[in-house]
Amino acid sequence: MSEPTTHGAGQDGRRTGREGRPTLAVVGATGAVGTVMLGILSQREDVWGEIRLVASARSAGTRLRVRGEEVVVQELAAEVFDGVDVAMFDVPDEVSAQWAPVAAARGAVVVDNSGAFRMDPDVPLVVPEVNPAQARNRPRGIISNPNCTTLTMMDALGALHHGWGLTALVVASYQAASGAGQPGVDRLYDELAVVGGDRSLGQRSGDVRGALEDKLGSAPSPFPAPLALNVVPWAGSLRDGGWSSEELKVRDESRKILGIPDLKVSATCVRVPVVTTHSLAVHATFQRSITVAEARQALVEAPSVVVLDDPEQGDFPTPADVVGADPTFVGRLRQSKDFPDTIELFVCGDNLRKGAALNTAQIAELVAAELTDA
Amino acid sequence: MSEPTTHGAGQDGRRTGREGRPTLAVVGATGAVGTVMLGILSQREDVWGEIRLVASARSAGTRLRVRGEEVVVQELAAEVFDGVDVAMFDVPDEVSAQWAPVAAARGAVVVDNSGAFRMDPDVPLVVPEVNPAQARNRPRGIISNPNCTTLTMMDALGALHHGWGLTALVVASYQAASGAGQPGVDRLYDELAVVGGDRSLGQRSGDVRGALEDKLGSAPSPFPAPLALNVVPWAGSLRDGGWSSEELKVRDESRKILGIPDLKVSATCVRVPVVTTHSLAVHATFQRSITVAEARQALVEAPSVVVLDDPEQGDFPTPADVVGADPTFVGRLRQSKDFPDTIELFVCGDNLRKGAALNTAQIAELVAAELTDA
């Protein structure tokens, strides 16, 4: 932990009563997740001393507000990690791969939200409601935050696994544009501005594609097909056997987080024209016989899960209602009619909050508590 | 079959060379499916004598074009079925329930696209590529056309079942607005006109709902939640155990069409902001060992299936590319890593064409051929 005389003051030098608290660096502070992170850091109980904001050279010098104070964004460099206790990384895989070890070497515990280290056996993959103890076992000084699609269902499945022993998952996702970062959000808004108000589109093959090319020209999209008035069954990059990297993350990360190395998982990941909040249709099979009533009770009791399940009254989770909230929302609970010991559920979670920034903040707070206790 | 002297003339009395051909009635000619049907009847090989267009009193008197000719829409009444050989019904369940038996009693073979008769053991449920012989076994004089969600995957699954013996399906749907008819299409366009161009929406709980209420007031929606910038995990009405009627249709109709009474099926049906074309993520398990290469070959050889499966080149089916086309499009073929004898696929089909009007037209043509041969 850093010396309070060096790191206990606010960015502007005012004494803030934060002496003795750990210093936090937020790397990628200007991105989609970073922006949400600054809001979360301002809302949650403040456990931090100094908070340093770090980004690429392009964004360095920007002034951003966190905890009600203006902070100047610093350029990513080895020196910014000097005296940092915890460094959150919300940056692309290759940036994390290069810089997380640099931060760790300078003494920071890194909480990384990229895919660079998640399957490294020396890096724990942590959901604080599910496997908090894993956060202390970090031989490389790095803790990984799971992929947002996987994270969306982990709180709910962790609660059910605890009681009934999860054995298999068949998952189909409805993933929001912001899973592809701010460029994804920008692109969806650009596309909606083109199609909104044109009542002829979406009725002939290629007409949406044509309208977007007409109006947006060759502006690059992070999506491999139109997203407005469409769904796109692809996220990530191609892996062996025709799987997308996103689909394999759901499988491999679920196994690691839940501690079930032989968990059977098949996932199909599909992007939908939603700004933020991922949804998942989950078919979950258990070792022990489970009823919907039992599953509902376990989910109601899970601290970070909200059950919304009265379809006749219109009560089920949807992204438009869930976005901006911290919990995982679960609805459409059904006992499978034909598959034994199997429950169907529909899960929604804000992919920028619990799916990314919130879980990262929760992990960082676990580390802060550990450092403060030590 | 009707007398050529009575029914062999066009609506306008011109001789059309259609003498001796069966008379067709299209009931629900002005609806979303009916409109597509008139296009399909104009494009396909013309096997019909007279085509009568029938609709509710509200639409009677409208003039519509079919086969290049203008036809006056008649009001639904028992007498319109006199001399009709085949009557297609594209109307709500309760209208079919009342009027299909009336048409059958007047001698017409009814091809009904509602849910009213699909599970009646005396009514065959037909997909011409899968179970065409069933169309001849119609003790009530009624043949049912399957639900559009089920129908989207039947051609592909029929081809795979033929080779490997289907035993189980886990399905998640991405259903288009037009599955709820023209009111669904209108509502989606209305909502997109509100949200398109507003780059603030979709980021806070309820902001889309609020904007729609602001701009659209209390205008009724066929959807139980906003559809723009959202996905809605509900279609149909509530059944026992929290299932939606749509989800049970996928189970019960798949069993009946494929002739597998003990087929295991779990479906989750979700509406997405797409105008037309349903998509399905399908996890299909077979009796016999199956490889992706074998599945691909069988699908390529299926006459009504197109395989689009080279994700690195952006080749996978999406609704925006598939809408308006007749075949079923299949992509994202993967061998399940953990479930034996299981293939994952993503299927797209135009829910107004193969999912409704086209399949109805194909069934009607089977009957026409039978009547002409007789």
UniProtKB/TrEMBL annotation, chains A, B:
This is Aspartate-semialdehyde dehydrogenase. Homodimer. PANTHER family: ASPARTATE-SEMIALDEHYDE DEHYDROGENASE, DEHYDROGENASE, PUTATIVE-RELATED. Keywords: Amino-acid biosynthesis, Diaminopimelate biosynthesis, Lysine biosynthesis, Methionine biosynthesis, NADP, Oxidoreductase, Threonine biosynthesis. Catalyzes the NADPH-dependent formation of L-aspartate-semialdehyde (L-ASA) by the reductive dephosphorylation of L-aspartyl-4-phosphate. Signal peptide: none annotated. The active site is at C148, H278. It comes from the Bacteria. The lineage of its organism: Bacteria, Bacillati, Actinomycetota, Actinomycetes, Kineosporiales. Residues 23-138 form the Semialdehyde dehydrogenase NAD-binding domain. CDD domains: ASADH_C_bac_euk_like (cd18131), VcASADH2_like_N (cd02316). The keyword Amino-acid biosynthesis applies.
